[in-house]
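Researcher: I'm preparing a figure for a lab meeting and need a structural model of a single chain. I don't have an experimental structure, so a prediction will have to do for now. The sequence is pasted below. Please return the structure as tokens so I can convert it later.
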Amino acid sequence: MTEQQIYEVLEKFPDFEVRHYPDHVVAETEVGGPFEMAGNRAFPRLARFIGGHNRASRKVAMTAPVLQEEPEGGRYVVGFVMPAQMGVEDLPDPSDPTVHTRVVPAHTAAALGFSGRWSRRSFEKRSAELLAVVAEAGLEATGTVRYARFDPPWTPWFLRRNEVVVTVQR
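Model: Understood. Here is the structure written out token by token.
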């Protein structure tokens, strides 16, 4: 079973959860192109890193979810969450200069889960839903909405676990 990112559910609403995410480490890369292709373009770089193509030739376990966000139009940051027991000092240095590791500080976020295909249309629809219910609950969304994908691409679309996640202030 693939390790999943750790979080604590602080509050459940009918359409979403508010969670506390502790400090965690991600390996990320930036890619261009269409939304639907960002994960496909980034995945080989990140998979090589965790597969041992790094300065220590050491493997790192795969975890879920794979995260994707669009900080600037047309460019996407795709990241693998590293195993919970690994700090940034425990990770090998990437050999690929387009792969970077960093610590994501602890934060509170709202998450809305759904199944289905990985498409811009689905992401935009679910993001709008999340931002609307977050505002209705009296929370303030900060930052960009992230797409979290938990399943491999061969998982049938109707069984896929996906989430849209946004940092919030209470």
